[in-house]
Predict the 3D structure of the following.
Amino acid sequence: MDGLKLTLKQHHTQQTCFSVGDITIGRDFTLIAGPCSIESEKQALSTAFMVKEAGANIFRGGAFKPRTSPYSFQGLGEQALKILNLVRQETGLPVVTEIMDPRHVGLVAEFADILQIGTRNMQNFPLLREAGQTGKPILLKRGVYATLQEWLSSAEYILSEGNPHVILCERGIRTFEPYTRNTLDLSAIPALKEITHLPVIADPSHGTGRASLVPSMSLAAVAAGADGLIMEVHYKPEEAASDKDQALSPALFRQSARDILDLYRYLHIPKKGP
Amino acid sequence: MDGLKLTLKQHHTQQTCFSVGDITIGRDFTLIAGPCSIESEKQALSTAFMVKEAGANIFRGGAFKPRTSPYSFQGLGEQALKILNLVRQETGLPVVTEIMDPRHVGLVAEFADILQIGTRNMQNFPLLREAGQTGKPILLKRGVYATLQEWLSSAEYILSEGNPHVILCERGIRTFEPYTRNTLDLSAIPALKEITHLPVIADPSHGTGRASLVPSMSLAAVAAGADGLIMEVHYKPEEAASDKDQALSPALFRQSARDILDLYRYLHIPKKGP
Amino acid sequence: MDGLKLTLKQHHTQQTCFSVGDITIGRDFTLIAGPCSIESEKQALSTAFMVKEAGANIFRGGAFKPRTSPYSFQGLGEQALKILNLVRQETGLPVVTEIMDPRHVGLVAEFADILQIGTRNMQNFPLLREAGQTGKPILLKRGVYATLQEWLSSAEYILSEGNPHVILCERGIRTFEPYTRNTLDLSAIPALKEITHLPVIADPSHGTGRASLVPSMSLAAVAAGADGLIMEVHYKPEEAASDKDQALSPALFRQSARDILDLYRYLHIPKKGP
Amino acid sequence: MDGLKLTLKQHHTQQTCFSVGDITIGRDFTLIAGPCSIESEKQALSTAFMVKEAGANIFRGGAFKPRTSPYSFQGLGEQALKILNLVRQETGLPVVTEIMDPRHVGLVAEFADILQIGTRNMQNFPLLREAGQTGKPILLKRGVYATLQEWLSSAEYILSEGNPHVILCERGIRTFEPYTRNTLDLSAIPALKEITHLPVIADPSHGTGRASLVPSMSLAAVAAGADGLIMEVHYKPEEAASDKDQALSPALFRQSARDILDLYRYLHIPKKGP
């Protein structure tokens, strides 16, 4: 891992921790949940109250959506940012949303608690620098084609702007397997724990592309040592404007969140002696 | 999943279970451990007693080794089979070893309780048929390039010979990532659980190629729903004749096996009510 | 190929052709050559005169460089744009250079004849839209992970802004092979010729990462039906500030260009009868 | 390229050449053509006469077919070997056919002039050894997942049995692209020419899986430096028992063979001076 000055463990012996809302990322388990896209006030608020009650501590929702086709739904943009603001006020949950354009970073940073850089922009260097300069926590997803070294080099762009608050998010790499949308590389979690001091979370929704696989892969990510998860939940998955195959229903999310948090406690809370 | 008559869940509604030694594979947790290669009586026996005491219920060890180079150690062959026989007699553990050549299948079947077909031979169709005809349980590893459909088609070759006792073993696929030897595709576990009635285990040793990642990825595989694990253990990893970077030491295996079995019980044994 | 309205052949039966400098791209063979990065006036001018004399009809040179590490040479920026302007004035060659940031597109469009969107930005949608709006010809490289469908969807972003002047550039995909930097997918050329009316060129320099393979792969691209090539040439490859392993020396480029142009004429100029 | 003693150029400075029928492989252009599977005397003979007339100098046809599914057509076996024998007698063309099982190698070697080891068996080490011992020329296809180093290590297995007559055949690697069946890695051709003294040919039929791409990719392989090609031709592609999408019709093959042989002569026969 040549050329990495700030992201390696050897240069910063303590695990990076920082507060967002009521939790300390890197120390407390981070459960981020919400819809792929913000579609309406009603959709956002009802989903947010539900995921909060089920144990989520951060809300996610897309305002500017990177879509493969120019003719697909591109997100509600600024209107969605206002809805995210409302969600925060009403539920108390911090919010994370994606940035795609360096010209929008300032605007999004006014409304969001965490800025997400998506898989397609992992090596969008002007965006990385601009995000770094906001000082806001950055959730940096892995490119579907990216080695761990390249991913950490992208994190290094943010840290080198003076912003140490980066969360790495494994969200699946591209392979030849058609059954899943991507191949969630859970070995990246313990590997990164060996290499870097930054917190690492997993996205089993994009990682598999199939709601039926999300609960198992969430538990697997926790067992692999993830500091958190980001999961897609929609109050009516079959009506979602994007990525409906991978969104959990409220019922499925409630059960899954319970299992996830129980497993995290089982693994991390010291057992009492006799 | 076209063209699969025997391996799909829809054709066989019950999970496949069968006895090997004292356990029922597909129902009890299967913990297979041992060295990559059988190197000597002493190495095999001491490792076998150790892994048994730590909780393993099947012993693994290579007699005929598929090696990329013709000049690498090719295994002790028939001598190793006799050592495996001795291990079974002395420890009571059933043994699994790899077959590579259809002409050796009968010989190996005399000595081994389970026949392994390795990743390079997943589509060695004469070998699959020959293995099927023995009636012995077959541990079928996934090809590093194989889709789930292709893997199940190879299982179908064995089942179509009248042998229903197949264990599928996810052992990592080939991707562009150099940090790990392969990329262990844990999503294959819940995916296969949706598709097939066959038991599914994982090989975190070949899946990662790094001993330091094996404990975490073992727990992750259990959390993903694996019916078992196959792990490389060597009493002196630094002296192993093959694959020394991925072998656990006895101390590391003992700790890891305890954590694995505890997690399995946590996940599968119903919690008592108040 | 769903959701593509403008890039498919079925919607636009004639091959797209447009003039840049003295040539018509899509009809004449396009030979783009020059250094990875513009390093100085002297380096740029001397390379430009040389490649022109050898048969190149467009000059390439990076001003803003997308580099994996924040600590690598990032290009001379605006100073390089002025050098490119000088190259055009002195040699008469049109110039192509990469854009990375939507905020720089207007500036770069003042100086460059063709705007390049690199592999890391193939799905940088704000950049695609901004580039589309300039009306300038766009050289769109394939993402190292991108399917043909995704690549054409990115072209569709540009065309849907009213800009039909897109050149597709195959530059290698990421695979497991370590001998080459990428795997140049030449089958993309005849495949795209079946699907789209846009011109298609190849980049054997990034596609292989090894100067020794560039001449053969250039000929292969021409034989596969490419409308042109983009090649890295440096007057002293061993002193190049970036990508020195893949740059051709002047002597090697001269020989290679001669062979390329001869082969193109052999394949495309009708043979006379007896 | 560690551990390769016999296949590297540095150990054997002359290009390997050997006679098969009327040609010297490694020196003359090798054009192998014929159907995927031998289906009948009539199909084999009529195809063989046609490809010979069109310029092919070796006939191919499968007797034992490696099929993903146990329920697919498995080839006519010994009956097909007799048909191949007849083809040789009637047309004078040498024949190549695939071996899958070490127990059949002796039998196939009685009938075939070249033994093919297919992509799925590239690391079937007992088969490699057995094939090496026959002393017959071996056409060794690349595994869809294999690095150049691994492929050459498999060739080394054959050479280390005392058989220097190996032809390497690039036939496409597995990537994420669904438009083509595989991705034909033509850069393997000049790369192998740097590394090894063995002849290298390409298989554009399996490499693309689409008959429409075969002519272009054949020319590209020749331009990349291939010593030959192996192509699937069927007198009625739509009725082929296997791989019908990639088989050329007689008309298409005749045109393609003419273009291929013309291009080879253009590239390899010294131009006369003025």
Summary: The first helix of chain B runs from residue 41 to 54.
